[in-house]
Amino acid sequence: MLLLIARRLLGALPNLFGIVVITFLLTRALPGDPAAFFAGPAGTQEAVEQVREKLGLNRTLPEQFWLYVKALGSGDLGQSLSTGQPVREELLTRLPASLELVLASLLFAVSIAIPLGVAAARRPNSWVDHACRLVTTAGVSLPTFFTGLLLAYVLYFLLGWAPSPIGRLDPYLTAPPTITGFYTVDSVLAGEPQLLVASAKQMVLPVLTLGIFVLAPLARMTRASMLAVLSADFVRTARASGLSSGTVLVRYALRNALLPVITTMGMVFSFLLGMSVIVEKVFAWPGVGSFALEALVASDYAPVQGFVLTMAVLYTLLNLTIDLLYVVIDPRVRLGT
Amino acid sequence: MPSLPLLSIDGLSLQFRTRDGIVRALEDVSLSIAKGETVGLVGESGSGKSVLAYAILGLSDAAARITAGAARFEGLDLLAAGESSLQEIRGREVSMIFQNPKVALNPIRKVGRQLEDVLARHTTTPRAQLPERAIACLAEMKIPDPERRYHGYPFELSGGLCQRIMIALALACGPKLLIADEPTTGLDVTTQASIMALVKEKTRDRGMATLLITHDLALAREQCDRIVVMHAGHVVESAPTELLFTDPRHPYTRQLIAATPVGRASLSDLASIGGSLPDLRRGDLPACRFSDRCAMRSPACAAPLPEQRGEARTVRCHRAAALEPSA
Amino acid sequence: MKNDTPVAVLAAAAPANMLPPPARKFWSHARYVLSDNPVTMLAAGLFAVFVLLAIAGPWVAPYEPLATNVGPALSAPSASHWFGTDALGRDILSRVIVATRIDFVIALSAVLASFVTGGLLGACAGYFGGWLDRIVMRGCDMVMSFPLFVLAMGIVAALGNSVANIILATAVVNLPFYIRVARTEVNVRREAGFVEAARLAGNGDARILLVHLVPNAMPPMMVQVSLNMGWAILNAAGLSFIGLGVSPPAAEWGIMVAEGAGYIISGEWWVALFPGAVLMLAVFTFNLLGDGLRDLIDPRRRT
Fold first, then answer.
1. With contacts defined as CB-CB under 8 Å, which chain A residues touch B92?
2. Nearest CA to CA, how far is A229 from chain B (Å)?
3. Position B212 confidence tier, pLDDT thresholds 50, 70, 90
4. Which of A13, A73, A109, B10 is the most buried (most CB within 10 A)?
5. ipTM, 2 decimals?
6. A296 at the C interface (CB within 8 A)?
7. How many Å separate Cα C256 from the centre of its chain?
8. Can you name the residues that pair with B65 across neighbouring β-strands?
């Protein structure tokens, strides 16, 4: 099994390499003088020359690439012009906010999609089934930015149930001391329940928005997978053995049905990471996405590049986790069919 | 029969609601199994044999509806019983084994654990002793190296081994009736023989009744005390085995026997049965569903089939008396 | 007597059937599926409406989409302005109608580009195998290592804000799907009987690919096209929403929602809602159409 894990890890390396190549190429694709881009609109002639030297734009492309890789290796992602901080610092500070949002949305989506899909599969053509189908078809049609605005309008403006969409925490409160960077977790660790509630409330709208979008493919896959499994021979054997409905449903049917659902997670993560940018903009969430957007508006290019790189690496790691999860839970993969 | 039958199916009729109409899958089916008896249920594919078995245990498809009849097991009508009562009976009093054993077992759960699930459900074995008992069940089915097999997954095991495990699952809690639905289809000939030998041995040792469902008439002749012949959802004939083969009364039975390879008969000696099963969605199905294919058909055959008479032998055919006894 | 041959006799007997048999069967099957599935009919109808708007938009719109102050700024929906007006006094209904064209053109161009390019690349990779296959697959993997929207963002940010770049970015991001589908379909049929026959008859590789294999790969790719159109529109609108892509004062659904976003909190809901709702409807139409197409082509894959 260790061999399988090692093989999966090695398999991720070409992907990481490819990511580096593409992000590099994107910078060289900038129209005009890349050095001017990185030096910024306010850059003096000297600054532009400095950048040109640093990026090695006077040298051959392979040499430039090597310089780029070396810089990455030492963790140098360039400088943000708008904030004056190294891009790496900014990204690291803001990453927990994005991660908290993404993980909470995933949790929300999974906790609704899976029971919904299972219920729909158990009672085909019932109202639950039709509701599930409606959710899945409508869910993938909803533009995230629109859902976010709609939810903000209805739940905040009209009904007053949700707090104002102005970020992670009410401006009158102070954030808990940073341990994980997740406000919810840190509040618990610092023993401040009111902060936990406050930060959780701020998360409601963004999590709903992001979660609804990925709810659809998850529910659809769960339903389809469960339908197939419930009519499988081994489920019939389990029922014929007199096992209780609960055991048959969970231990026999669901566990098998979840395997294809886990495969869908790759696509789900792609949506989550991509759409988180939009959600961060709509709800003024201070994550890496909004950082990149602010930089973009200011023609500050290094943060955007760093952002793309970070998201891609994160995505690759998440996919790797899914692969490894599969190795662990499916004996057919583990023992090799 | 001197004692009350273990299982008594009485006039069972079952329909499926489908997109294309109502399929009258079973009509007025009656059969009984006595304690310790091995009964063979034979017929072409599509004759309703498996449908009947599933109906008995309440495992029918959601689209199925029982429109008449009862299936009494030790006096309790299984068709009227609720799901929780049925869950008590399945696996403990009445068990079932299926064809394609490799896919009939949970692919991601160790076979030993699957045995434990059944044992935990129906017996009071303390949890710590479950693995031991599971291994004992495997050993009883003549599975070599049972401690190792316990940890195996179905995909790692051969078809024959999987079938033994399924039999172990079915017999783990000592049922009184075993329903075997085409247990040897898909297995090679030697494995077939060893599986049937195993079933026969266990049946004998435990005084268990068996309902053997098969399309293989030769197999049924070898293994069964009595045979029930089905065609298109009807029971057409039932008789003690040897009697059925020496003196088949129903035209369909005769053709089935003629189509069964026996001994060194060559393929050219076999007679195929003309026509095909009637479309069970038709609203105008004749009283005798074999009449459209039957060489002996007469105007009298349009009348409703004769009631089952006698226990030892039943023939549901108006022309049975007209048939000469075959050689 | 050539008129006695069976083919000639049949042809003479059925002059009304102009389509060759396979196509005729397809359309009658199509009619059957459509009539069996009212939802798909509805989607087809909506699709037709959108296409009409895309073509005839500027003539149907009641006001000039770029004209400011045709009504009081930020006025709610009324008889003269069904969708209300925005902060610059522009009529929202007209802008929404005209935006159909931009979004459809973007989506269509992008999907067509990736369909053709991806289809050809995938077919060649599946047919020739070897290093071409490996390179193409590696390329696909590289593109797919990025969350799709993030890659699109990166491309447009690097190349500059323009409609052409949105089309390029969307096309690039969608390429891997088409490549994979085409590759699989061609791979599966590569050793098939009819291909062998064509080869033996002296057909070159290019001809075999284009005339025999690619048409067989079309059906699954067509299903992909419809589903992709919906996603391409969302992508384009999303990019515009965050400021990458179509620039103001152009009328595009994403930009309009962005322009209206600030007013949601203060209660002027119509500025963002109408463009967003129409956008949603368009995407929904394509998704339903895609599902219907999938049922048409392969009912076994119905979910």
1. 242
2. 10
3. very high
4. A109
5. 0.88
6. yes
7. 22
8. B15
